[in-house]
């Protein structure tokens, strides 16, 4: 099967500047060579802790940030080589849902105007835009007569639904969801997760689901990619990665998540990490996790491990995996 | 015996739109050496309860009724100076955001030692010694060198440790932790939880943990208080509340959570959204979202009734335990 989206060796560096002359002091390697494929109708979860580069990766893929290196192909077409003008039809195929439903909607525009702006830009639903906006609102579980209201009249969960409606307006194939439920309360979280799942089934959508919440990611994803300091350390089908994590970082991450069940919690053995996180500006030569890894060996500090397949599409970047 | 007892606490905010009853008749106890969790969604009144106990409710908020009894003394009746003598001493709090709760122009030694000099009458040397001990206790390496540093020189996890060290400086009998790990990464969160567990066993302090994360509750606490729209809807031991929840809101909360150790086909969300506290409903505040709501639920607020392992405010209890169990299974 052909992947919908192929990401190869994606890099995004930010210059770190100092002083009035803004002299460059170094490069912050937010995303430092990540590769993965996305297949139609699938959800790939991208997880990691704050500062690991997961949000930057998402934004670079849709070219909200100009990439430093690598390629992203949508149906085989390299989108990084396109000009500003040529990218418009590509943007129609990849949309984004943002984390904060409070700041990602224009407070001075009615919800209907926000959604129909997307239709206008892409020249869609000419002559029946009001109707189409109504359809989209109904599709995300709101009512069509809410189109005339402003964002402040909605609750957090409803605003996130509006964000979803706006993304769906241009009939995309791939949606990059950047922490879409982290700002919401748990009971509302489940509503939005279910909505995303239903829409995927109905419209055959492909998601890149970026989140720090591993329980949510396990629930929604078919495959999971774990990121640490700009690199992927493990990619595997979601049950695999939870039942049989191979990379020591993945293992520690899993064991740190509390489970809402006192019986399970009292039985659990935790791997508590010690040591400091390496600086993304001044990266060590070997494995980036070496400074915190409980199983570290000498070669880990010298040689960066390559991604290897340990069987059944389970990829790991660790010297100890083979 | 209960160290902290809250009776019918009512705290309201008097805004230009009207009175917001943030905490509306809350009662509970925290025993000596016990860790109790106060859980609920944002806006349910759990943080305002904490601030009420600390006597730090910001205007236009005000405690308008009830008692907060700590070791036999009603805190709501204490004068400002008397309350200041308790705060940071026998009663202290770890707040949610380590980034904004430390004074950026004081170094760590001054900041952590302030309470010791003030409450315990220690001189600079003794305070410094104790601060060093505290830094070691919360696992901050190179404590000697760190004493002279300022908050901006610490990472988020380290700052939260500083907050904890500061809260523990005078060995408080009652520690209130308001979302102590929400701003932190999971691997750091795990370290902080371990730390709180150690403290509970070595100091036998009582902890009131305020959180929305049911996972942390399961790992750290003995008892749970579930709040909804400014009221307590259910209390009980962790085993009881997680294993045999009585209130439909608690069922909903537990069912809507995705779990790391299980694969669920579909999550079961709670429909609708929490009520607007400006227009507090007449009956049970959860009734509009409850799948088991009866006519009486929208007319009259149910009282707290004792169950086999705790207490719950729900009209379903009138129908007997079998009916509650059946209703819970039907909703799933």
Low-confidence stretches of chain A: none
Order of helices and strands of chain B: EEEHEEHEHHHHEHEHEEHHHEEH
Give start-end ranges of low-pLDDT stretches of chain B. none
Task: Note the quaternary state here.
Answer: heterodimer
State the separation between the terminal residues of chain B, measured CA to CA. 39 Å
User: What overall form of chain A do the CA principal axes indicate?
Assistant: globular
- Average pLDDT confidence of chain A is 90
Main sheet overview of chain A: 8 strands, mixed
Number of strands of chain B: 12
Would you summarize the structure shown here?
The complex is a heterodimer of chains A (322) and B (332). Chain A is of the alpha/beta class and 322 residues long.
Q: How are the elements arranged and paired?
A:
The complex is a heterodimer of chains A (322) and B (332).
Chain A: E1 5-18, E2 23-38, E3 43-47, H1 54-61, E4 69-74, E5 77-78, H2 88-93, E6 94-97, H3 111-121, H4 129-139, H5 156-168, E7 174-178, H6 186-203, E8 206-211, H7 214-220, E9 223-228, E10 231-237, H8 238-243, H9 248-256, H10 262-267, E11 308-309, E12 315-316
Parallel strand pairs in A: 3-8, 3-9, 6-7, 7-8
Antiparallel strand pairs in A: 1-2, 1-4, 4-5, 9-10, 10-12, 11-12
Chain B: E1 2-15, E2 18-31, E3 35-39, H1 46-54, E4 61-70, E5 73-74, H2 80-86, E6 91-94, H3 108-120, H4 124-137, H5 143-146, H6 156-168, E7 174-178, H7 186-203, E8 206-211, H8 214-220, E9 223-228, E10 231-237, H9 238-243, H10 248-255, H11 295-299, E11 305-306, E12 310-312, H12 321-331
Parallel strand pairs in B: 3-8, 3-9, 6-7, 7-8
Antiparallel strand pairs in B: 1-2, 1-4, 4-5, 9-10, 10-12, 11-12
Helix pairs in contact in B: 3-4, 4-6
3D architecture notes:
The complex is a heterodimer of chains A (322) and B (332). Chain A has 322 residues and is an alpha/beta fold. In chain A, 30% of the residues lie in helices and 23% in strands. In chain A, α3 packs across α4, α3 packs parallel to α5 and α5 packs parallel to α6. Chain B has twelve helices and twelve strands. In chain B, the strands form two sheets. An eight-stranded mixed β-sheet of chain B has the order 6-7-8-3-9-10-12-11, sandwiched between helices. A four-stranded antiparallel β-sheet of chain B has the order 2-1-4-5, with helices on one face. The radius of gyration of chain B is 21 Å and the shape is globular. The mean pLDDT of chain B is 88. At the A-B interface, α6, α7, α9 and α10 of A face α7, α8, α9 and α10 of B.
């Amino acid at each position: 099967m052909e992947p919908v989206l192929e990401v190869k060796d994606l890099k995004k560096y930010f210059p770190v500047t100092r002083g009035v002359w803004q002299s460059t002091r170094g490069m912050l390697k937010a995303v430092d060579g990540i590769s993965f494929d996305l297949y139609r109708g699938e959800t790939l979860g991208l997880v990691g802790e704050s500062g690991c580069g997961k949000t930057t990766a998402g934004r670079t893929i849709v070219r909200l940030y100009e990439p430093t290196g690598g390629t992203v192909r949508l149906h085989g077409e390299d989108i990084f080589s396109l000009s500003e003008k040529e990218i418009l039809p590509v943007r129609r195929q990849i949309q984004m849902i943002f984390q904060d439903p409070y700041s990602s909607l224009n407070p001075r525009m009615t919800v209907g105007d926000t959604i129909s702006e997307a239709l206008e830009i892409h020249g869609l639903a000419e002559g029946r835009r009001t109707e189409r906006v109504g359809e989209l609102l109904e599709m995300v579980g709101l009512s069509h007569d809410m189109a005339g209201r402003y964002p402040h009249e909605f609750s957090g969960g409803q605003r996130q639904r509006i964000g979803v409606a706006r993304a769906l307006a241009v009939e995309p194939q791939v949606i990059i969801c950047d922490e879409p439920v982290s700002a919401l309360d748990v009971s509302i979280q489940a509503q939005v997760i279910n909505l995303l799942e239903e829409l995927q089934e109905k419209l055959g959508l492909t998601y890149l689901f970026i989140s720090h919440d591993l329980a949510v990611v396990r629930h929604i994803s078919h495959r999971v990619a774990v990121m640490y300091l700009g690199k992927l350390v493990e990619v595997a089908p979601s049950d695999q990665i939870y039942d049989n994590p191979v990379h020591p970082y993945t293992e520690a991450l899993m064991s740190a998540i509390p489970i809402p069940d006192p019986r399970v919690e009292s039985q659990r053995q935790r791997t508590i990490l010690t040591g400091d996180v390496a600086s993304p500006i001044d990266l060590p030569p070997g494995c980036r996790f070496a400074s915190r890894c409980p199983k570290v060996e000498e070669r880990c500090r010298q040689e960066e491990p390559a991604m290897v397949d340990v069987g059944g599409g389970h990829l790991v970047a660790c010297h100890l995996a083979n | 015996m209960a160290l902290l007892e809250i009776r019918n606490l009512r705290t309201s905010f008097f805004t230009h739109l009207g009175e917001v009853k943030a905490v509306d008749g809350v009662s509970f106890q925290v025993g000596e050496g016990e860790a109790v969790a106060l859980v609920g969604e944002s806006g349910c009144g759990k943080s305002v309860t904490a601030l009420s106990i600390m006597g730090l409710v910001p205007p236009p908020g005000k405690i308008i009724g009830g008692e907060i009894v700590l070791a036999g003394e009603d805190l709501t009746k204490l004068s400002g100076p008397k309350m200041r003598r308790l705060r940071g001493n026998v009663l202290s709090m770890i707040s949610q955001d380590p980034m904004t709760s430390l004074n950026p122009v004081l170094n760590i030694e001054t900041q952590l030692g302030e309470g010791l000099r003030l409450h315990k009458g220690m001189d600079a040397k003794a305070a410094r010694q104790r601060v060093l001990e505290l830094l070691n206790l919360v696992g901050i390496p190179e404590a000697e060198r760190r004493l002279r540093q300022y908050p901006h020189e610490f990472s988020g996890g380290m700052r939260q440790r500083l907050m904890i060290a500061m809260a523990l400086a005078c060995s408080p009998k009652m520690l209130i932790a308001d979302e102590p790990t929400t701003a932190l990464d999971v691997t750091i969160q795990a370290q902080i939880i371990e730390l709180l567990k150690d403290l509970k066993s070595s100091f036998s302090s009582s902890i009131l943990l305020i959180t929305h994360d049911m996972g942390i509750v399961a790992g750290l606490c003995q008892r749970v208080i579930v709040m909804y729209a400014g009221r307590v809807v259910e209390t009980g031991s962790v085993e009881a509340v997680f294993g045999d929840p009585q209130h439909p809101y608690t069922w909903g909360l537990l069912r809507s959570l995705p779990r790391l150790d299980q694969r669920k086909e579909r999550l079961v969300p709670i429909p609708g959204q929490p009520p607007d506290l400006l227009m507090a409903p007449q009956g049970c505040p959860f009734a509009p979202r409850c799948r088991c709501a009866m006519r009486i639920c929208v007319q009259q607020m149910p009282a707290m009734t004792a169950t086999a392992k705790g207490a719950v405010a729900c009209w379903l209890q009138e129908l007997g335990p079998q009916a509650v169990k059946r209703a819970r299974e039907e909703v799933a």
